[in-house]
From TrEMBL:
InterPro entries xref list: Pectin_lyas_fold, Pectin_lyase_fold/virulence
Keyword Signal attached: yes
Annotated protein name in UniProt: Pectate lyase superfamily protein domain-containing protein
Keyword entries, A-Z: Signal
Signal peptide region: 1-20
Origin: domain of life: Bacteria
Originating organism: Paraburkholderia graminis (strain ATCC 700544 / DSM 17151 / LMG 18924 / NCIMB 13744 / C4D1M)
Length: 557
């Protein structure tokens, strides 16, 4: 065994002491621990080499396991204390939720020389122990407890490893033992294919506190089964004050009936934050007071998943700066896709530059939105979802192709005196530079746009305005944005909000003008007394063929 600096036995007994004879279930049972704990080095074989600690750790675990099986009671078992130091492990360590591995100082469980296809620790409860009236009493505390110093679990490396750092759950439902009330505290898992894998058979009520799942290639958490079915699993899987970073998917779920709660957690620089596989159906993933930063993929990807899934975000911060694609700006883009229900309240979105090209909603059109409220934006405002647009026909898709611009149902068009122009609805494809990962579903389906031919003089002023007013509430903040392009010179756009106290009773006008060559957007606060509003967008100094793909107004929710 590698030499370590360890806290003395007497100090450990003072902190963790317990009676050497403890009552079992129904009758007194002999407790073979020294004061309620055993030191790991007690299980080292004399004369054994110092290069491999696998046998020592597994013998210690098996010792406690045998105590529980022999007495048929897990309520009075000793904890296994691991002194500070590095432990070289060359094979999978098998443990149970009622066996407690506790650090005394910083502990490194180093699996880096283990064959790359093997898992680090497995936590299963494949026993036939009766539950007794206490219902598995030994489970109710972390089976990995780094409260006395962090427990780090190191794999073979992000590029090489094929195993997972920790695997929880049984492999078949025939055992009466359950993996419940089990989890970890102050644990770091890094250098694996995935950090934590959950086999959803009799696995539930798991809690992880102050842990880091970082720099693992495919996932931070993965739930999967061969047929996508879970058995008595998924209830209240809780993570508090944890960090998930550097994985293709922070949370990957491909089984049914999984309910996860993340409180005060950080999700830093992942591909997808939540990814539902084709077998995922039923279940909720909830985020409360979380910080989410660096997303190359999607905040929620449920494109392949089944029905009855939900994601909920409350009082959290989303900074979707790209993780690896440094060439891409942090601009508004689609972040939620698929059939999972979505709700968000009090979410602060942090974008650093305006969108270039199409106006993309953060939430795809196909997503069932339960509620979106109290959204906050820093620097750049974005359209949360197209269901929040309050003006009619923002995508110019409700009139027949070929309709003249002056005969649109929901828009009126005009041009400065003396300027020649022609306009019509024509077929227009999606933005050419949109990628599969970030292209909005609406953009992918978009077939129509408003096309206008403007004179080459450069002094034409083409305006388009909502034909009918839309209702407003004093104090609301309105946003307007336009996605437009031209084959000639790109000019400026001037927006005007016209507020009415009542139909036909003008109240006030709020105007703003974009700088040249920027995607135009504007914002206005509804004044007191206003009940309805209309919007005008004037295109100044544009020449050639002007294409307006979208002109949308929405409230800051």
């Amino acid at each position: 065994m590698n030499r370590r600096s360890a806290i003395g036995l007497s100090a450990g007994m003072a902190v963790l002491g317990a009676s050497a004879v403890s009552p079992g279930w129904g009758e007194p049972q002999r407790n073979d621990s020294a004061g309620g704990f055993r030191w790991l080095h007690d299980f080292a074989r004399k004369g054994a080499g110092a290069s491999d600690d696998t046998g020592t750790l597994q013998r210690a675990i098996d010792f406690v396991r045998d105590l529980g099986l022999r007495t048929k009671d897990t309520s009075c078992l000793p904890s296994l204390l691991i002194p500070a130091g590095r432990y070289v492990l060359t094979d999978t360590i098998d443990t149970l939720p009622w066996i407690k591995l506790r650090s005394v100082g910083g502990v490194l469980l180093d699996f880096s020389t283990m064959p790359v296809g093997r898992d680090g620790l497995t936590c299963r409860n494949e026993t036939m122990l009766p539950s007794t009236e206490l219902r598995f009493p030994g489970n109710r505390s972390p089976f990995l407890d780094g409260a006395g110093g962090t427990i780090s679990i190191l794999g073979a490396g992000v590029a090489r490893a094929e195993g997972r750092g920790i695997v929880m759950g049984n492999r078949q439902p025939s055992f009466s033992g359950e993996v419940r009330d089990a989890g970890g505290r102050n644990v770091v898992i890094t250098g694996w294919r995935g950090a934590l894998a959950i086999d959803p058979i009799n696995t539930y009520l798991s809690a992880w506190h102050s842990c880091r799942f970082e720099q693992n290639r495919e996932h931070g958490i993965c739930v999967a089964s061969a047929d996508g079915k879970s058995v008595n699993s998924g209830e209240r899987m809780t993570f508090a004050d944890c960090t998930f970073s550097g994985s293709a998917r922070a949370i990957a779920i491909d089984a049914d009936s999984m309910d996860f709660v993340f409180d005060a957690c950080s999700f830093d620089f992942n591909g997808d934050v939540v990814h539902f596989g084709p077998h995922a159906s039923f279940g909720t993933v909830a985020f409360n007071h979380c910080h989410i930063e660096g997303i190359d993929g999607l905040l929620v990807d449920a494109a392949q998943a089944g029905k009855h899934l939900r994601t909920v975000f409350r009082d959290s911060i989303v900074l979707p700066r790209h993780w690896k694609r440094k060439d891409l700006s942090n601009t508004p883009r689609q972040l939620v896709a698929g059939k999972a229900k979505f709700s968000a309240s009090g979410v602060e979105w942090r974008f650093e530059s305006p969108a270039q090209g199409s106006l993309t909603a953060l939430i795809g059109d196909e997503v069932p939105v339960e509620s979106v409220s109290a959204m906050s934006f820093q620097q750049v405002h974005a359209l949360p979802w197209r269901g929040s647009v309050i003006n009619a026909d923002g995508l110019f898709e409700l009139d027949t192709p070929g309709t003249p611009a002056g005969a649109l149902t929901h828009w009126s068009a005009s041009v400065t005196a003396g300027a020649d122009f022609a306009g019509s609805i024509v077929v227009a494809g999606p933005a050419a530079d949109a990628t599969a990962a970030t292209q909005s579903s609406a953009s992918a389906k978009r077939k129509q746009a408003l096309h206008v031919s403007l004179p080459d003089a450069g002094n034409a002023r083409f305006s388009v305005a909502t034909r009918a007013a839309f209702p407003v509430v004093p104090g609301d903040v309105l946003n307007v944005a336009c996605s437009a392009a031209t084959t000639g010179v790109t000019g400026r756009v001037k927006f005007a909000f016209h507020f009415d106290a009542a139909p036909g009773v003008p109240l006030s006008t709020s105007e703003s003008q974009s700088a040249a060559h920027e995607l135009p957007a504007a914002q206005a606060t509804v004044p007191a007394g206003a009940t309805q509003a209309m919007v005008t967008a004037a295109f100044i100094g544009w020449t050639g063929q002007l294409q307006i793909d979208e002109l949308a107004v929405w409230r800051s929710s």
